[in-house]
Specification:
The protein is mostly helical and 415 residues long. Among the domains are: 95 residues, no CATH class; 111 residues, no CATH class. Helix content is 52%, strand content 2%. A two-stranded antiparallel sheet has the order 1-2. A two-stranded antiparallel ribbon has the order 3-4. The two termini are 53 Å apart. The C terminus is likely disordered.
Length: 415
Amino acid sequence: MERRRLVDLQVARLTSNAKGETEHAWKAWESARATLGPDSAFAKEPEATENRVRQELQEETMMDTLIRMRRLLAEDKLFELLTVAVVAGIHPQAVVSARGQTLLFKAPSAEAVHLLAGNLGLDVTQQSDEGSTAMHRACKAEVVEALVAYGADVNAANNGRTTPLFYANSAAVALAMLAAGADATAVNVFSHCPLHLAASHGRWQVVWLLLRAGADCEQQGSDGLTPLVLTNKIMRGVPGPDGRISFPQNLAELQRTKSLLEIYAQCLAVPRISRPFLRFEQAVATKDLSVLCQHPLQALAASSRIPVELLTVVVVRFVSAFRSESRVADGPEEDGKSAGWHRPITSEVVPVQSVLTEALPQSRTFRAGATGMGMGWTKSWPRPELIVPMGFMTGVFFLTVFILTRPGAAVVVGD
């Protein structure tokens, strides 16, 4: 709250033409500062930051100050950015890069967009030398939504007829742009569509959203490459200037993208199909179910981004706990009760290193013997000591199903 009031104070000092407005902002801040304790970080603001900035600016050139302001904005340090603007006498509207990009091009948050566009009057539709707008550089969904709220065009094309959707670097950004009316079938000067760029970077979640929005997976660029062919070409390696082949580091994501495009192409090949994406969703779900049944740990790890080694250790240790002979065998009768299933079992503390070295090699044994866990259970079913492990396994199963059934959460980790 105090930082927000400080930002409002600096905005008033930058934008108010009337002396009375600035004095009113100062009085509002003085009233708020009076309620702060002496140990508060804002008790000596804005004077402390202004004195420090004034000393630092004495050793900088004008170019250094402009670079500093762009860096502060990228770090989302809005109060210090405004303090530099007040001390140096540079309005943020005057900060433009060598390529004609305003500070809005580097806005890291919706708050920064509100400050620059709402309070300081920067134009969200202003184009750079290459014809791009701030929407082309939006890196977060909240930034997209804030820019749209101030009148930004989500289908604005630059000099190469490339729209902001081409540069969507995440599923959240793509979803926000599509919700604002972005055209998934737009084509640039090279006859490429957003699907080409998303597929070539292995952004398989963005590919899913683009296909759902009606993108053409058979669109050929001026080089004759479709998104699928382009993805295959990149996975085989790209020759460098020195002739050496350079392979991408995100082969797993590219493989997922390739699998999705192949399944969608197969759905399009079916004659007289009216809703190809619906059939595509069903085909992907069927493939994911097959992968889940064959390799459940790999499928869960791929969806939840939890290392498969960790999942293997956890599951194997739990399964081993209630498959031991001491828990399965029935003990002697004591007072008419079976003593084999309810007697306490002391578990020793096992170092993490030994768990990794012992549990991982047992993964094949676990998969091979999982169907025989019930062998030897003769009576007293269900056994109380199995409730927690079985509950854990049930939770893992339903967690996997929940992850796989989220929109756009296709796994496709194997053939």
